[in-house]
Amino acid sequence: MKRNGLKIGLALSGGGMRAIIFHLGVLKYLAEKKLLENVEYVSSVSGGSITLALMYTNNNMHWVSSDEYIDRVLPSIRRMILSEDIERRFILRSIIDIPHILDTKCKKLANTMKIFWGMNGKLGELPKNPRWDINAVTYETGKRFFFSQERCGDNRIGYFYGEELDIAEAVAASAGFPILIGMYELKRDNFEWFDRYGEKKIEPSKGKLHLWDGGIYDNLGLEPIFQRILREDEKVNYYIVSDAGAGSKEFVVYRKIFGRVRALKRLLDISMEQVDSLNSRFYKEYIEREKNGVYIRIGESAFEILKDREMEEWRKLKRINNSLSIKECRWAECYPTNLKKPKEEEFDKLLRHGYESMLLKSL
To answer: Any idea which UniProt keywords this protein has (predicted)?
Structure first.
């Protein structure tokens, strides 16, 4: 991957703590190659949104340079994740935080990230470059809703400028999986709404919008990537999709305990897998044709990535032997989708897997 003239667009998938750490490993590779300075656009969902928010939180709301990421930001995020069990804190605060007892669980998650991870920035504090779209889905329209430093909204309802919105709340909306965390409520009349061109004012309907986890709609964050490809956006000429979605389970046992809740979650999982499968296939066909991007999938081992690669056999075997095994990669793929504090060895293995995946795809 040559640096000169490279303008990178990133898509960081959802997947809870598994995704957060895997993406950190992908970014570590880019930092080692001095390529973080070449990132022009980021589309993120759920865990991927938390990854970016932690980066900004640990760098005074500035985009990180490659040296800053390696020397200071990544070690700081590692300490933060390993010192606080954000899921446990979230559950406890949901019970004992009496003044905010009526807040939605999504709002409580945002407050938990503010208090224990210091995620206190506003959208308006983000630098203009790279553009960052934090993706959710609007319950009322079924369309992608995004938060960014430029504007927020969806293409059916309209858009508004959200400079004063908390990043933690935007990220929580992006991660608001139904049942487990739930929806984020956005009061429509708190903002001035415009059409897509920012010219014509739109009178907002009264009431609230209800935003859910962007992964329900597009867990890879690929829709805005496709939009840029279709309009031949010159701001980006190389795309990296980091897919840390959960591995497919060959057989799931039906249980009567919490049967309806389990069934609903299972149906959502099936739907999300189908959408992601189609999106990733279209994207892979595009980059294979245009030679201008990579698709990185958690769970893919060095053997699987390199087995058909044209390279010296001794070099291939050396790379495979120095990388995580097939078993270790399968473990990473099946790591639970939650926000629990990982063990140190779990963090390091997920980070290494993300790093090696990017390295192997870039050879």
So the answer is: DNA-binding, Hydrolase, Lipid degradation, Lipid metabolism
Q: Is 301 a catalytic residue?
A: no
Specify whether 213 is catalytic.
Answer: yes
pLDDT at 99: 67
What are the tens digits of pLDDT across the range 16-28?
999 999 999 999 9
The residue annotated as part of the active site, out of 213, 218, 243, 276, is 213
Superfamily of domain 8-362: Cytosolic phospholipase A2 catalytic domain (3.40.1090.10)
Active-site choice (13, 44, 46, 357): 46
What is residue 92's three-state secondary structure? helix
